[in-house]
Write a structure and sequence with these properties.
By secondary structure, the protein is α+β, with helices and mostly antiparallel strands. About 20% of the residues lie in helices and about 60% in strands. The termini are far apart.
């Protein structure tokens, strides 16, 4: 019984003498992969166990900030033994969410190595006592090419330019017809960018019937839609060469629109394909068919 009491006293004494382990640094930060708009990052979480006994790193939570906004999180999901009087490097992974970073894309394009800020909070058990060990660290990540690739995907997979209306500019003649077309430029991103160029070619039955080009660049505001009124003139003789029975069955004509746009984000140029279709009723070309 005395031995048990003595043993318990020793355990309690050792526990009370246990020292709080120290956060040392974050090292070897590296982008591991990118998937579904998430950047997977690996790193080493370095901690010093100043005690003469083994300790256990039972939990580690990370928050990653960019300009005071939380843009990523990381966790340690297993227990790690820390050797006595030793500095231990523990591999940890965290995720950066590109959607949460999107408002900062123009800034992140400025540098090959962008500065992020990390806060950590870990639970380390020394004997019977658990310490909360907090750390703060600045880390650097090369995100420029990642952001450029993400912007390319966003621009190419969204409807940045769509035709929303068509009307006759003036009464068609035997020689030509003019059409007013409303093109909508949509910015679904949380920052402004410049539409530098926009070129559209109109086809009917695979034959080119008209071309149009933006005369002056404009600033496309964040989360806004800009209406671009354009006018095209079509040679009726060329148009009639493509006439077939479907015109008269459907009582409409269809134009395929193909083109490209150039968008500038903080000095970087993004080339975007544009494709759409417009249909209009034959009756608006009564000047030809009368």
């Amino acid at each position: 019984m005395k031995k048990l009491v003595t043993y318990l006293i020793i355990i309690i004494a050792l526990s009370s003498c246990g020292k709080k382990p120290d956060f040392v640094a974050i090292e070897n930060v590296e982008v591991e992969s990118i998937k579904d708009s998430v950047i997977n990052v690996k790193m080493n979480y370095v901690v010093f166990n100043s005690n003469a006994v083994k300790s256990k790193l039972e939990q580690a939570n990370l928050k990653i900030y960019f300009q005071d906004k939380v843009v990523g999180k990381g966790y340690l999901n297993q227990t790690v033994l820390l050797s006595p009087k030793d500095t231990i490097s523990v591999p940890i992974k965290f995720e950066l969410n590109l959607k949460q970073l999107s408002k900062f894309y123009p800034i992140l394009l400025e540098s090959d190595s962008s500065e992020f800020y990390m806060e950590s909070n870990s639970k380390i058990k020394v004997m019977l006592k658990t310490f909360s060990v907090k750390g703060k660290e600045t880390i650097f990540l090369d995100t420029k090419n990642i952001i450029k690739s993400e912007l390319n995907n966003r621009f190419n997979n969204s409807e940045n330019f769509k035709v929303k209306g068509v009307s006759v500019d003036k009464i068609p003649t035997l020689n030509e017809s003019s059409f007013n077309i409303n093109v909508q430029a949509n910015n679904n991103l949380p920052f402004d960018y410049k539409v530098e160029r926009l070129e559209l070619t109109f086809y009917n039955a695979s034959s080119q019937v008209a071309k149009w080009q933006l005369q002056q660049s404009f600033l496309q505001k964040a989360h806004k839609t800009t209406s671009i009124p354009i006018t095209i003139t079509v040679n009726n003789l060329n148009l009639l060469k493509n006439a077939d029975m479907s015109w008269f069955v459907k009582k409409e004509i269809e134009f395929d629109i193909k083109g490209k746009a150039v968008i500038i984000v903080n000095g970087y140029e993004f080339n975007i394909p544009v494709e759409d279709k417009i249909k209009f009723k034959l009756k608006i070309l009564t000047g030809i068919f009368e």
